[in-house]
Amino acid sequence: MIRPLRSGWNDVVLVCGKCSKKVGGGFGPKRRHPLAKALRRALGLKGRRAAGGVVETKCLGVCPKGAVMVVDGARPDAWLIVPMGTPLAAVTAQLSIGGGSDQA
Fold first, then answer.
1. Residue 102 belongs to some domain of the structure
2. How far is CA 7 from CA 4, 26, 60, in A?
């Protein structure tokens, strides 16, 4: 039997795990953390009771060189290619979860 479980999330961001592994970190204050972990810290998201979530997925199939693929759950039609070393403020400004732009 399938049972629903409430997460409490309003938004979700999907980060390609394969891209993150290939880049080998490259984000955060000292550029040592994977993008998903750095985003969680920057946005203050922890656990399923947070306002939103950052989920690291399997390969999204785009595989850019020296960058990580990100999908904003509020805008699944516009995927983001985030180059290694991009400041987290610039990344969160592009995401609806971080209070960023609401562009279509």
1. no
2. 9, 29, 23
Q: Which whole-number Å values give the CA distances from 39 to 1, 4, 58, 72, in the listed order? A: 34, 27, 17, 12
Interatomic CA distance for residues 82 and 60, integer angstroms: 14
**Residue type for position 48:** R
- Model confidence over 51-104: pLDDT tens digits? 889 999 999 999 999 999 999 999 999 999 999 999 999 999 999 886 565 444
The domain of 69 spans: 11-94
- CA dist 78 and 75 (Å) reads 6
Which among 15, 27, 45, 7 has a CA at the least distance from the CA of 85?
A: 27
- Residue 91, sorted as left (phi over 0), alpha (psi -120 to 50) or beta, turns out to be alpha
Does 67 fall in a domain?
A: yes
CA distance 93 to 43: 11
Structural domain total, the chain = 1
